[in-house]
Amino acid sequence: MDRTRRLALLGRKIFGQVQHPPGVKSPTRWLKKANRAEAMLKYYPQIIVNQNRLMTRMAAAGLYFNEKMFYHEQKVADMRERGKVPTKKGEGKRAAKKKKK
Predict the structure, then answer these.
(1) Distance (Å) of CA 44 to CA 12, 32, 40, 47
(2) Do residues 59 and 52 make contact, with C-beta atoms less than 8 angstroms apart?
């Protein structure tokens, strides 16, 4: 190996860059294509999605207790009581500054 090639290889190893073989396309280009979205969605089995929906329904019916969901609901309720509700879109600090001008 000549010196520049060896330095380039070492640089890639140090900085975490990946060199793809010459005949293989880059995965980022592969993922950018619109028709690949379905393939990516099929990666996760539908069972997991349905299981999350089932657990949410069971929690609403009182058959399952989810601490994380309970904590979040309590936190949101406390914030509402104190008047700390999230602002609507277009009513934030930046929008208020623009309206003053």
Answers:
(1) 32, 19, 8, 8
(2) no
Give this prediction's pTM: 0.36
Give residue-wise pLDDT tens across range 84-97: 888 888 888 888 88
Q: What are phi and psi of 4, to 5 degrees?
A: -65, -40
Name, in order, each residue with C-beta under 8 angstroms of 40's C-beta and a sequence gap of 6 or more. 31
Q: How far apart are CA 54 and CA 9, in angstroms?
A: 50
According to the model, what pLDDT value does residue 4 have? Answer: 87
Longest CA–CA span in the chain (Å) reads 70
Residue corresponding to tokens 């293989």: 24
pLDDT in tens, 58-83: 888 888 888 888 898 899 999 999 99
Give how far the C-alpha of residue 67 lies from the chain's centroid of Cα atoms, to the nearest Å.
Answer: 22
Question: CB under 8 Å to 26, separation ≥6 — which residues?
Answer: 20
